Amino acid sequence: MSSRECPAAVLFDMDGTLVDTEDLWWDACVEVAAGLGTPVGEADREALFGLAVEDAALHITAALDTTGGPGARAVEAMLTDAFTSRIESGVTTLPGAVALLEALRAAGIPAGLVSASPRPVVDLVLETVGGHRFRLSVAAGDSARNKPAPDPYLAAAARLGVDPAACVAIEDSPTGVASARSAGCAVIVVGPFGGMSEVSGVTAVPTLESVDLPLLRRIVSPPGAVTPRT
After folding, report:
1. Strands of the sheet with 136-140, listed across from one edge
2. DSSP 8-state assignment for residue 6
3. What pLDDT, on the 0 to 100 scale, is given for residue 197?
4. pTM across the whole model
5. Does the fold of domain 22-87 match that of domain 3-20+91-220?
6. Are 118 and 11 in contact (CB under 8 A)?
7. Residue 164: left (phi > 0), alpha (psi -120 to 50), or beta?
8. Which of 24, 51, 96, 186 has the most CB atoms lying inside 10 A of its own CB?
């Protein structure tokens, strides 16, 4: 593959990467946990960060009395409803997101959305970000396993007909980074998550405003390849 064909696609995480929904997710977790009589604290916030809704439900139910109360599937539905209701009130697109998506579209590079959130949440966010900017979207349930398994990224690459190793995944959490790396993607991690920049195959940036076409091409180009000027 020539450097002009790199990357074959750019695959974006959604929550905390493209849109500012992390506080909304935390508020949903707090509401559901409190309603079940098992309040969550700051330590739980770190544990729940970046988790798929089914894993968050397991985290919350682990603290419940095992002799009673709803099961993980019921808690998963509660979390989805609580999160969706907050998303319906509107979300904020993070700095640099729209500009990067437009640059990819102008360059003819497919963009995909690969989220651990449920389909109703993904579809609501796409209304804000612009579904026309994405070639496809993968939500919870669209692959056999959710993040941190590689399945969502492998599914996106397969649907696009591209090699995952020729794709760049843009993530913001350890869970998402693990998923993308295990799928074979080059990874850009956005935000203040120290240590991940030292992981092989991961490039750390403060915001999406730091991501441009030369950077994307550079991190997936074969060693010694000359990346084109833009």
Report:
1. 136-140, 111-118, 9-12, 167-171, 186-190, 202-205
2. -
3. 54
4. 0.85
5. no
6. no
7. alpha
8. 186
CATH 2.60.40.10 fits 3-20+91-220, yes or no: no
Domain limits, the chain: 3-20+91-220, 22-87
**Burial environment of residue 31 by CB neighbours within 10 A (0 to 12, 13 to 18, 19 or more):** middle
pLDDT of residue 112: 98
Considering the segment(s) 22-87 as one domain, its CATH architecture is Orthogonal Bundle (1.10)
Q: Taking the CB of residue 227, how many other CB atoms lie within 10 A of it?
A: 17
Asked if the bond preceding 148 is cis, omega within 30° of 0, the reply is yes
Q: Which residue has the tokens 């916030």?
A: 45
Q: Out of 33-42, 125-134, 217-226, which region has the weakest mean confidence (pLDDT)?
A: 217-226
pLDDT tens by residue, 149-185: 999 999 999 999 999 999 999 999 999 999 999 999 9
Confidence of residue 198 (pLDDT cuts 50, 70, 90): low
Asked whether the bond before 223 is cis by omega within 30 degrees of 0, the reply is no
CA–CA separation, 46 and 31 (whole Å): 16
Residues in a beta bridge with 112:
11, 136
The whole-number average pLDDT for the span 180-201 is 79
Which comes out higher in pLDDT, residue 98 or 39?
98
User: How is residue 65 written in tokens?
Assistant: 């009395």
Instruction: Count CB neighbours of 64 within 10 A.
Output: 17
Hey, what's the torsion of the CAs at 183, 184, 190, 193, to 10 degrees?
80
Token pair in block for residue 170: 């843009």
112: phi then psi, degrees, rounded to nearest 5: -125, 150
